[in-house]
Write a structure and sequence with these properties.
The chain has 225 residues and is mainly α. 61% of the residues lie in helices and 0% in strands. It is built from nine helices and no strands. The relative contact order is 0.11. Keywords: DNA-binding, Repressor, Transcription, Transcription regulation.
Length: 225
Amino acid sequence: MTAAGTEPLTRRRAPRGSARRNIVAAATELFARRGYEATSVQEIVAAAAVTKGALYHWFGSKSELLTSIYRELLAEQTARLREIADGPGPVGERLRAAAADVVEHTAAHVDELTVWARSAHLIDGEHADATRRERRRYHDLFRDLVLEGQRAGAVRTDVSATVITHTFLSALGNTHTWFHPDGPLTFTEVGHQLVALFVGGLRPPEESSSPTPAGTAGDRSRSTA
Protein backbone atom coordinates (compact mmCIF):
# COMPACT_ATOMS: atom_id res chain seq x y z
CA MET A 1 0.00 0.00 0.00
CA THR A 2 1.11 3.57 -0.64
CA ALA A 3 -0.07 6.76 0.93
CA ALA A 4 -2.66 8.73 -1.01
CA GLY A 5 -1.08 11.13 -3.48
CA THR A 6 2.31 9.40 -3.46
CA GLU A 7 4.04 7.33 -6.16
CA PRO A 8 5.15 3.74 -5.45
CA LEU A 9 8.93 3.42 -5.43
CA THR A 10 9.08 1.46 -8.71
CA ARG A 11 10.23 2.37 -12.17
CA ARG A 12 7.50 3.83 -14.34
CA ARG A 13 6.89 1.61 -17.31
CA ALA A 14 6.29 2.82 -20.83
CA PRO A 15 2.68 2.98 -22.03
CA ARG A 16 1.69 -0.27 -23.75
CA GLY A 17 1.49 1.17 -27.25
CA SER A 18 4.94 2.75 -27.10
CA ALA A 19 6.82 -0.28 -25.76
CA ARG A 20 8.10 -1.56 -29.09
CA ARG A 21 9.10 1.93 -30.24
CA ASN A 22 10.97 2.51 -26.96
CA ILE A 23 12.77 -0.82 -27.23
CA VAL A 24 13.97 -0.04 -30.76
CA ALA A 25 15.09 3.48 -29.79
CA ALA A 26 16.92 2.26 -26.68
CA ALA A 27 18.60 -0.61 -28.52
CA THR A 28 19.72 1.65 -31.35
CA GLU A 29 21.25 4.18 -28.95
CA LEU A 30 22.99 1.51 -26.86
CA PHE A 31 24.26 -0.45 -29.86
CA ALA A 32 25.66 2.76 -31.35
CA ARG A 33 27.32 3.88 -28.10
CA ARG A 34 28.45 0.58 -26.58
CA GLY A 35 28.42 -1.83 -29.51
CA TYR A 36 26.08 -4.74 -30.17
CA GLU A 37 28.12 -7.37 -28.33
CA ALA A 38 28.70 -5.22 -25.24
CA THR A 39 25.00 -4.37 -24.82
CA SER A 40 22.88 -6.72 -22.74
CA VAL A 41 19.16 -7.35 -22.96
CA GLN A 42 18.84 -6.11 -19.38
CA GLU A 43 20.42 -2.77 -20.33
CA ILE A 44 18.01 -2.42 -23.24
CA VAL A 45 14.89 -3.07 -21.17
CA ALA A 46 16.12 -0.73 -18.44
CA ALA A 47 16.73 2.08 -20.93
CA ALA A 48 13.38 1.44 -22.62
CA ALA A 49 11.51 1.26 -19.28
CA VAL A 50 9.91 -2.05 -20.18
CA THR A 51 10.10 -5.60 -18.87
CA LYS A 52 12.05 -8.44 -20.44
CA GLY A 53 8.71 -10.04 -21.16
CA ALA A 54 7.74 -7.03 -23.27
CA LEU A 55 10.98 -7.25 -25.24
CA TYR A 56 10.57 -10.97 -25.88
CA HIS A 57 6.95 -10.39 -26.86
CA TRP A 58 8.17 -8.34 -29.81
CA PHE A 59 11.60 -9.89 -30.46
CA GLY A 60 12.72 -13.46 -29.89
CA SER A 61 16.33 -12.50 -29.19
CA LYS A 62 18.80 -9.64 -29.24
CA SER A 63 19.91 -10.68 -32.72
CA GLU A 64 16.32 -10.62 -33.95
CA LEU A 65 15.97 -7.12 -32.49
CA LEU A 66 19.02 -5.94 -34.44
CA THR A 67 17.93 -7.52 -37.72
CA SER A 68 14.36 -6.28 -37.27
CA ILE A 69 15.59 -2.69 -36.99
CA TYR A 70 17.46 -3.02 -40.28
CA ARG A 71 14.86 -5.09 -42.13
CA GLU A 72 12.10 -2.59 -41.42
CA LEU A 73 14.22 0.24 -42.79
CA LEU A 74 15.19 -1.89 -45.79
CA ALA A 75 11.51 -2.62 -46.47
CA GLU A 76 10.83 1.12 -46.46
CA GLN A 77 13.72 1.74 -48.86
CA THR A 78 12.57 -1.03 -51.18
CA ALA A 79 8.99 0.26 -51.32
CA ARG A 80 10.21 3.78 -52.05
CA LEU A 81 12.59 2.54 -54.76
CA ARG A 82 9.87 0.45 -56.39
CA GLU A 83 7.53 3.44 -56.50
CA ILE A 84 10.22 5.57 -58.19
CA ALA A 85 11.27 2.81 -60.60
CA ASP A 86 7.66 2.16 -61.67
CA GLY A 87 6.79 5.84 -61.85
CA PRO A 88 6.53 8.18 -64.83
CA GLY A 89 9.28 10.17 -66.49
CA PRO A 90 12.49 9.43 -68.37
CA VAL A 91 14.66 6.69 -66.88
CA GLY A 92 17.53 9.13 -66.30
CA GLU A 93 15.33 11.26 -64.07
CA ARG A 94 14.08 8.19 -62.20
CA LEU A 95 17.65 7.01 -61.61
CA ARG A 96 18.62 10.39 -60.19
CA ALA A 97 15.49 10.37 -58.01
CA ALA A 98 16.24 6.84 -56.79
CA ALA A 99 19.81 7.75 -55.86
CA ALA A 100 18.71 10.93 -54.09
CA ASP A 101 15.94 9.08 -52.24
CA VAL A 102 18.25 6.44 -50.78
CA VAL A 103 20.53 9.26 -49.60
CA GLU A 104 17.65 11.06 -47.90
CA HIS A 105 16.37 7.86 -46.28
CA THR A 106 19.86 6.90 -45.11
CA ALA A 107 20.46 10.36 -43.65
CA ALA A 108 17.15 10.18 -41.76
CA HIS A 109 18.13 6.83 -40.22
CA VAL A 110 21.91 7.09 -40.13
CA ASP A 111 22.26 5.80 -36.55
CA GLU A 112 20.26 2.62 -37.17
CA LEU A 113 21.96 1.90 -40.49
CA THR A 114 25.42 2.55 -39.04
CA VAL A 115 24.73 0.13 -36.19
CA TRP A 116 23.74 -2.52 -38.73
CA ALA A 117 26.80 -1.88 -40.91
CA ARG A 118 29.08 -2.33 -37.91
CA SER A 119 27.31 -5.37 -36.46
CA ALA A 120 25.91 -7.37 -39.40
CA HIS A 121 28.91 -9.72 -39.43
CA LEU A 122 27.97 -10.89 -35.93
CA ILE A 123 24.58 -12.20 -37.05
CA ASP A 124 24.10 -15.62 -38.62
CA GLY A 125 21.37 -18.17 -39.12
CA GLU A 126 17.82 -17.60 -40.31
CA HIS A 127 17.71 -13.86 -39.57
CA ALA A 128 20.95 -13.22 -41.45
CA ASP A 129 19.76 -15.28 -44.42
CA ALA A 130 16.43 -13.44 -44.59
CA THR A 131 18.20 -10.09 -44.40
CA ARG A 132 20.55 -11.02 -47.25
CA ARG A 133 17.62 -12.08 -49.43
CA GLU A 134 15.81 -8.81 -48.80
CA ARG A 135 18.97 -6.78 -49.44
CA ARG A 136 19.51 -8.72 -52.66
CA ARG A 137 16.00 -7.84 -53.81
CA TYR A 138 16.75 -4.16 -53.24
CA HIS A 139 20.03 -4.40 -55.19
CA ASP A 140 18.32 -6.26 -58.03
CA LEU A 141 15.58 -3.62 -58.25
CA PHE A 142 18.15 -0.81 -58.38
CA ARG A 143 20.23 -2.73 -60.94
CA ASP A 144 17.16 -3.33 -63.12
CA LEU A 145 16.59 0.42 -63.20
CA VAL A 146 20.20 0.90 -64.35
CA LEU A 147 19.65 -1.79 -67.01
CA GLU A 148 16.58 0.06 -68.23
CA GLY A 149 18.73 3.17 -68.55
CA GLN A 150 21.32 1.24 -70.55
CA ARG A 151 18.71 -0.11 -72.95
CA ALA A 152 17.27 3.39 -73.40
CA GLY A 153 20.71 4.82 -74.18
CA ALA A 154 20.68 7.03 -71.10
CA VAL A 155 23.34 5.07 -69.21
CA ARG A 156 26.77 3.99 -70.41
CA THR A 157 26.98 0.36 -71.50
CA ASP A 158 30.74 -0.12 -71.18
CA VAL A 159 30.31 -0.72 -67.41
CA SER A 160 28.20 -3.54 -65.97
CA ALA A 161 24.92 -2.49 -64.36
CA THR A 162 25.90 -4.66 -61.38
CA VAL A 163 29.20 -2.80 -61.00
CA ILE A 164 27.39 0.54 -61.26
CA THR A 165 24.86 -0.51 -58.61
CA HIS A 166 27.39 -1.90 -56.15
CA THR A 167 29.71 1.06 -56.57
CA PHE A 168 27.07 3.62 -55.61
CA LEU A 169 25.32 1.66 -52.86
CA SER A 170 28.61 0.49 -51.34
CA ALA A 171 30.02 4.02 -51.35
CA LEU A 172 26.94 5.29 -49.56
CA GLY A 173 26.81 2.34 -47.17
CA ASN A 174 30.44 2.79 -46.14
CA THR A 175 30.25 6.54 -45.58
CA HIS A 176 29.98 5.94 -41.83
CA THR A 177 33.58 4.64 -41.78
CA TRP A 178 35.00 8.08 -42.56
CA PHE A 179 32.24 10.65 -42.08
CA HIS A 180 32.61 13.00 -39.08
CA PRO A 181 29.55 14.97 -37.94
CA ASP A 182 31.78 17.89 -36.91
CA GLY A 183 33.21 18.19 -40.43
CA PRO A 184 32.39 20.86 -43.00
CA LEU A 185 29.56 18.85 -44.63
CA THR A 186 26.46 17.20 -43.23
CA PHE A 187 25.75 13.56 -44.01
CA THR A 188 23.02 14.63 -46.42
CA GLU A 189 25.39 17.00 -48.23
CA VAL A 190 27.98 14.23 -48.56
CA GLY A 191 25.28 11.91 -49.87
CA HIS A 192 24.13 14.37 -52.51
CA GLN A 193 27.73 14.82 -53.65
CA LEU A 194 27.85 11.04 -54.10
CA VAL A 195 24.65 11.33 -56.16
CA ALA A 196 26.30 13.99 -58.33
CA LEU A 197 29.28 11.69 -58.95
CA PHE A 198 26.97 8.74 -59.60
CA VAL A 199 24.75 10.55 -62.09
CA GLY A 200 27.73 12.14 -63.82
CA GLY A 201 29.41 8.76 -64.16
CA LEU A 202 26.35 7.23 -65.80
CA ARG A 203 26.54 9.36 -68.92
CA PRO A 204 27.56 7.47 -72.05
CA PRO A 205 31.03 8.43 -73.29
CA GLU A 206 30.91 10.96 -76.13
CA GLU A 207 33.12 8.70 -78.22
CA SER A 208 32.74 4.95 -77.80
CA SER A 209 34.12 2.21 -80.00
CA SER A 210 31.72 -0.73 -80.24
CA PRO A 211 30.28 -0.48 -76.72
CA THR A 212 29.39 -3.81 -75.20
CA PRO A 213 25.90 -4.00 -73.67
CA ALA A 214 27.27 -5.05 -70.28
CA GLY A 215 23.78 -5.50 -68.92
CA THR A 216 23.13 -8.61 -71.02
CA ALA A 217 25.74 -11.07 -69.79
CA GLY A 218 27.45 -9.93 -66.62
CA ASP A 219 24.20 -8.82 -65.03
CA ARG A 220 22.10 -11.94 -65.39
CA SER A 221 23.36 -13.28 -62.08
CA ARG A 222 21.71 -11.95 -58.95
CA SER A 223 23.37 -9.46 -56.69
CA THR A 224 25.47 -11.03 -53.92
CA ALA A 225 25.16 -8.16 -51.43
